[in-house]
Amino acid sequence: MRLSNNLMYQNNINKILDNQQSVANAQEQVTTGEKYLTTSEAPAAVSQGMLYSNKIQTNEQHSKNIDQLNGRLETEETILQSINTNIQQAQELTIQAGNGAYTQDDLESIAAELSEIQKTLVNLMNTRSEDGKFIFSGYQDSTQPYQFDSTTGEYTYNGDQGQHVITIAEGVSIKSSDNGFDTFEKTDARLNVASNAATVSGSITAASVYVDGQTEFDNFHQANYNADPTASATANTYSVLVSPGATADDPQTYEIYRDGAPLTPTVTGEVTDEPIDFAGMKIEFEGTAPGQLDFSLEKPGKENVLNTLQALITGLNDGTLEGDDFQQVLADGLVQLQNASEQVVFTQASLGGRMNALERVSDSNLAQDIQNKSNLSDLVEVDMAEAISELTKQETALQASQATFGRLTNLSLFDYLRNIQRWCSTNTNSNG
């Protein structure tokens, strides 16, 4: 009987302990929100859940990168818009300067306004990002991109052609900036002749060549300029050969040559009091036949907007420039300011494309994040309603076990005492 009571006692103790452990497990699930308390409970599920956790953490970093990149691109967009606005203002002032009624004082006032615009552009082109790095310096972002060289009298670019990138998704990186070389140094300079003063020989005493039809000249230059470094030194040299008429009463004639050979088809004409009009160029000369004048096409070049403004400012302040020479300065400025504006707009378009791509990737990352969290939850996270219900059930079971154990313990003791009392009563009656 003693053994049976001990077994009953121990069994109930074990049951209570089991119930207590179940309650503890249920409580921990509610507290942690985790379905499995140890990896051994569900190795595959826990392992897969860890992979989803890693994806979620990576996505969180990508989201931070997206925020950083978006801020930088928005900053650059604002800067580029301000730069373009200032370039357009400079264009308007340059057009005003072409007003023949303006005095030298008026031109100098315009030059002063252009100088202020230039200062503004220098500051904008030397803008720093939120971390103190120069936006337009490429990889050399600790170096100020534009500085004035007093020796040459020009602004020079001190950065490189690098572009920083930021990773915003697995396998997806987007440029976070544009270097000054691509944005400002690739601006085409105005196509022109190498010198407005032609080289003369024979009875021709002086000659000049000016571009006065820019579009026509641009097309001619682009179609005919020989950029081959192995070509002869005179490959881009044109000559106007002036010949006397067949008789004293006949007009002088001219024919245009290239590199010593007649053009195909030939270009000929009579010499009049009007300039010779050829491919957007105005050719004038002094003297008489026979004679020759030579000029060359200028090599295509690049010029940043700061130096374009510098040339304009210098030209407007030079009171000795007049006529075609003055118009030449204005023409250089107008064409190059327009080209600079177009280059900035091109960069803005590229920037807009990156911002659109950034928005699409951001939306994709958000969708992936939601899916990853959902998958993680399904694998290793408890349903809180179910977990609370399970905790309540286990607590109820524990309480029932404890109550039952108490009753069973008390019942066994009472039975033992009652039996002793009966035995004592029986023996007393027998002896009596």
Summarize the structure.
The chain has 8 helices and 11 strands. The chain is an alpha+beta fold and 432 residues long.
Written description of the protein model:
The protein has 432 residues and is an alpha+beta fold. Among the domains are: 54-189 and 329-367, Up-down Bundle (f41 fragment of flagellin, N-terminal domain), CATH 1.20.1330; 199-300, no CATH class. 56% of the residues lie in helices and 16% in strands. It has helices at 2-32, 43-97, 104-125, 180-185, 214-224, 305-317, 323-380, 384-431, and strands at 146-149, 154-157, 165-169, 172-175, 199-211, 237-243, 253-258, 261-262, 268-270, 276-278, 281-296. A hairpin with a 4-residue loop joins strand 1 and strand 2. The two termini are 31 Å apart. The model has no long low-confidence stretch (mean pLDDT 85).
Quote the average pLDDT. 85
The radius of gyration is 46 Å
Q: Give the overall shape.
A: elongated
Q: What is the β-strand count? A: 11
What is the fourth-level CATH superfamily of the domain at 54-189 and 329-367? Answer: f41 fragment of flagellin, N-terminal domain
Oligomer: single chain
Distance between the termini: 31 Å
- CATH topology of the domain at 54-189 and 329-367: the name is f41 fragment of flagellin, N-terminal domain
